[in-house]
Amino acid sequence: MPTNSESVLVTLVVALPIESRPLQNFFQMKPLRGTRNIYQSEEEVRLLITGIGRSNVKRSLAMLTSGELSEQSLSAWLNIGIAGHRTLPVGETMVANKISCAASARSAFPTPVLVSRNYGEVITVDEPEVNYPQNAAYDMEASAFWDVASRNGILDLVQCCKLVSDNPHHGVEKITTALIEEIFNDALQEIRQHVDSLRELALEQQQLASDPVPFLEIADQTHLSVNQALQIRRLCQRLIVLNKERELENILDAGYKNGRELIHALREALQSSSE
Amino acid sequence: MKFSAVYIEREVAEHDSVQRIITQVGDSPIVMIERYGEVFNRAGQNFRLQKRAPALILAKKHGKTVLPAPEGYGFERGRGFYFSHMLNCLYDCRYCFLQGMYRSAHYVLFVNFEDFMAGIDSEASNHKENTVFYSGYDCDSLAMEPVSAFCKSFVPFFASRPESVLEIRTKSTQVRQLLNFKAVDNCVIAMSLTPESASNRWEHKVPALSKRLQALKKLQLAGWKIAIRFEPVIAEPGVDGDYDKLFKRVFSVLAANELHSVSLGEFRLPAQFHKTLVKLYPDDNLLARETVRQDGMLSLLEGGEVLLKSLEDKLLSYVDRSCYYRCA
Predict the structure, then answer these.
(1) If exposure means fewest CB atoms within 10 Å of the residue's CB, which of A60, A255, B98, B201 is most exposed?
(2) B38 and A109: CB-CB below 8 Å?
(3) Residue B124 — left, alpha, or beta (φ > 0 → left; ψ -120 to 50 → alpha)?
(4) Is residue B295 part of a domain?
């Protein structure tokens, strides 16, 4: 079906500039004009650096989702960042299937759409966790990321992937900028796979939600009320799906200038003959 | 069986069924939850997207486990009830109302069969006349048998309650468990069938017609009561000929005079569900067609009484009218 299928954005959310650098290089991102913490690539991957902790994440994401950048297109969201883990080795990656906030004891469950070697719970804490009491990843941002991102788009496209930076054998005090860069560089191919998966899913939804091209032509030429626009959009969509594009073209050529008459003509075309 | 994840309500984690299922799900990630509503049917979830890789949710059904069946749902006269030990289906039929009912495509399996059984006993004891219990309203009852053990549990249960009837609605060929039992007189296996062309077009992941007929034949030969639900009838050019072929094929495999019942029913959806389906599948031919609305239900403009009457006449040349009903 020919439609006006726009591109989709995959927004990566990281806490630290040091986490962002390998991603910027890998996805060939450039800073977005007028921003200090947002980068974007030509292949529609966007990167937001939030700062450490829940409040920084909430503030940065709120600014991103409420500002002029919020209207661009459908977005999938991926929180990436370092985390401590009781059992996983340093450098290992884990996709979150549960995100819990230690402070509120609330949990959320990202839809399992990403393929990974490891899945597990991410527990967001306000201070670095050095005792790893549960077999989970400990970070400082995921739950806040979920709270905001899940209100902005399709819930199934909000995901979280953690890279293990510390564990009981390799404590937080051993985390260095060089280690973080190394961990991220090693995970870039997997992150690329996650980005591609999310993009594919988001694109399918975007295409379904896109306006059919004939409707855009009509909307460009005819003054329509909101209700008329909705009706005409769906009527165009139906004519295309039912292989009545020729009838649709004839109606467009007739140059109707009145929404009501146009709706009538489109309805007649739908009813005129069976498939 | 492999799922994208297996969610387990903490309350049923130690349930025998859950312990058994855990051994069957391979390396599917297991996630503990408090209530299935935490992952199922959340605002912002997308049925179509989730259908690509559904998860299994093992939960406990709270509240009423057995509900009155809609008027005209089945063949049997008298009181009818349905129970849903599962929500959602392994298959992906484009006409299915479940897509309009839930935002989530994950499979919810309620493992507390004992509570369903208590509910069934309670309703049966409230009514003197025979009571029919339908399974397969919100799921396919047989498709997940290796995991759910539904037949393994409920067939013996009904075998010991001859005053009640169990009707199992399905499109599945998972009949091995049934064939392991001696046929149970008050248990009916009701297979939904559409013409092969319609099945290929709308019934994604459903076993081939030939395989379903073979499964039914095995059941019939083993003495099981078989019913055929020719539903939903989807009106389109050539549909008469398609049903000619379907009836001929079905009744060349199955003994028509031994069937429990047959039915015809048109493609119909509550208007609100249709609206939801259009949002999910705006690119789907079936949902783009002209519809008529009556009493809050939408059906295809091309369908209607004339078509159903014509198909009815054809069907009644194979089966006795006494075992036929039209699904309301």
Answers:
(1) A255
(2) yes
(3) alpha
(4) yes
Structure tokens at A101: 């906030």
ipTM score: 0.90
End-of-domain residue from the set A167, A191, A209: A209
**Pairing mode, if any, of strands A75-85 and B131-135?**
unpaired
> How do residues A170-195 score in pLDDT, each as one tens digit?
999 999 999 999 999 999 999 999 99
Spans of chain B, pLDDT less than 50: none
Subunit contact B53:A112, Cβ cutoff 8 A: yes
One-letter identity of residue B206: V
**Is B29 close to A111, i.e. CB distance below 8 A?**
no
The answer to whether residue B244 sits within a structural domain is yes
Cis amide bond preceding B282, omega within 30: no
Same domain, A59 and A127: yes
Residues spanned by the domain of A27:
9-209
Contact (Cβ atoms closer than 8 angstroms) between residue A54 and residue A144 = yes
Query: How many structural domains comprise chain B?
Result: 1
A162: amino acid identity, one letter: K
Domain-located, residue A160: yes
**Res. A137 pLDDT band, cuts 50 70 90:** very high
**Element spanning B191, H or E:** strand B187-192
Instruction: Identify the burial level of A36 via C-beta atoms within 10 angstroms of its C-beta, where 0-12 means exposed, 13-18 middle and 19 or more buried.
Output: exposed
Report DSSP letters for B57-107, one per residue.
EEE---S---EEPPTT-SS--SEEEEE-SEES-SSEETT-THHHH-S--PE
CA triplet B57, B60, B65: central angle to 5 degrees? 120
Separation of alpha carbons B37 and B131, rounded Å: 32
Q: Chain B contact for A1, CB < 8 A?
A: yes
Q: Does residue B307 sit within a domain?
A: yes
Are A69 and A200 within one domain?
A: yes
Please say if the pLDDT value at position A46 is more than 80: yes
Last residue of a domain, one of A167, A194, A209: A209
Does residue B29 lie within any of the structural domains? yes
Q: Are residues A125 and A221 in the same domain?
A: no
| A272 close to B (CB below 8 A) | no
Backbone angles phi, psi at B31, to 5 degrees: -130, 130
- Indicate whether A217 and A171 sit together in one domain: no
